[in-house]
Specification:
The chain is built from 13 helices and twelve strands. With 359 residues, the protein is of the alpha/beta class.
Length: 359
């Protein structure tokens, strides 16, 4: 369904390097794009794969790659280049057990911080996390849309179970998500990073087009020229964060099943959100007052939506398949005064009964 979403969004270029559990996306994108007369390139490594995608995007083509933990670790410098050069690109990271080679066929949710904090300098990049086939489709379109609208790289953070599970899906019943494209440059006097307010997204002009375009991964002014200790360069750097932060509310996507009188709220994402839903249903059947929040947006942190959902609840339980509760640590700053606890597991899926026991 990631492939269906990418095609619906208008992806015309894919490059990747086969890696379990993302290889199905590699195979399907290669076959489908070539069958449409578009371009799919098997890269010699993950670094090259993302760089090819960045180059295609800088020519004005929507592009995507897919990988897993080891490949994502290799891609991060190129990912930061896309951020600095304000180049739209979508990276699908299908998580598996780490670190290093880890367990190629074992699922995990251990890359959440590596995705959310992938940049030196601490810049915010949008990270979406699907838990169902329909969400894989819709969030892939959203990932492309926001990448285009913000001129920034976006991560679609999946996991092995979501990516490799076969389920029946009615393609005709999938949500009709509008498709966006980057704002093109017009008129004379083009500047590579033209904005009047920090949160404005500059118009785009492709490399090789009629306008002179300068792109760099170095700190630069609005003309794209490397300039150090220049007030305009610092303005550009602040703008990279401001354009995302200003749209945090619009980027926020969550699913909710709330009880206004709940004492406990279960928060989860990815495949574990499905177990969490089942646990909440079981708890209610036993007479407990419990709410559920499924996070589709992980970054920017959907703090306002979470605070509204938690309301007067005393306790939040965060269920995630990793060591130590990685996203729970992120939520500690977003939910001050709320008791936070975790349900975690390493090397296997969390069962509804394990979440229910923690309630």
């Amino acid at each position: 369904m990631v492939v269906e979403g990418a095609l619906r969004a208008g992806c015309r270029f894919f490059s990747g390097y086969p890696i379990t559990p993302a290889s199905e996306i590699y195979r399907e994108m290669t076959q489908r794009l070539q069958g449409r007369g578009d371009v799919a390139v098997g890269a010699p490594d993950e670094i090259s794969a993302l760089c090819y995608c960045i180059g295609a995007s800088q020519r004005g083509v929507k592009a995507m790659t897919a990988t897993s933990g080891p490949g994502w670790a290799l891609m991060i410098e190129a990912f930061q280049y896309a951020l600095m050069a304000e180049t739209p690109v979508v990276v699908v990271v299908v998580q598996r057990l780490g670190p290093s080679t880890g367990g190629a066929t074992q699922g995990a949710q251990g890359d959440v911080l590596l995705a959310g904090f992938a940049t030196s300098g601490g810049y915010t990049v949008p990270v979406f996390a699907p838990s169902t086939p329909a969400e894989c489709f819709a969030l892939t379109v959203h990932a492309f849309n926001w990448s285009e609208a913000l001129r920034t790289p976006v991560v679609l953070l999946s996991d092995k179970e979501v990516a490799m599970t076969y389920e029946a899906v009615d393609l005709g019943a999938l949500p009709d998500v509008p498709v966006w494209t980057r704002r093109p440059a017009s008129g004379d006097g083009y500047r590579a990073v033209a904005f009047t307010t920090p949160d404005e997204v500059p118009p785009f002009a492709p490399l090789g087009g009629p306008r002179k375009v300068t792109l760099t991964g170095s700190a630069h002014n609005k003309d794209g020229w490397l300039r150090k200790n220049d007030p305009e360069t610092l303005e550009v750097l602040r703008h990279l964060e401001a354009k995302v932060a200003a749209r945090a509310a619009d980027l926020t996507l969550v699913t909710e099943d709330l009880d206004a009188g709940a004492d406990t709220v279960v928060v989860s994402y990815g495949i574990t959100a499905r177990a969490a839903r089942e646990a909440v249903r079981a708890a209610r059947a036993a007479g407990r007052r419990v709410s559920f929040v499924g996070l589709l947006t992980l970054f920017p942190v959907p703090a306002a939506a979470l605070r509204a959902a938690v309301g007067g609840a005393r306790r939040v339980v965060v269920a995630e398949e990793n060591l130590g509760g990685l996203y729970r640590r992120v939520l500690a700053g977003a939910l001050p005064g709320v008791e936070l606890s975790s349900v975690n597991k390493l090397g296997g899926m969390i069962r509804p009964a394990e979440i229910l026991e923690a309630l």
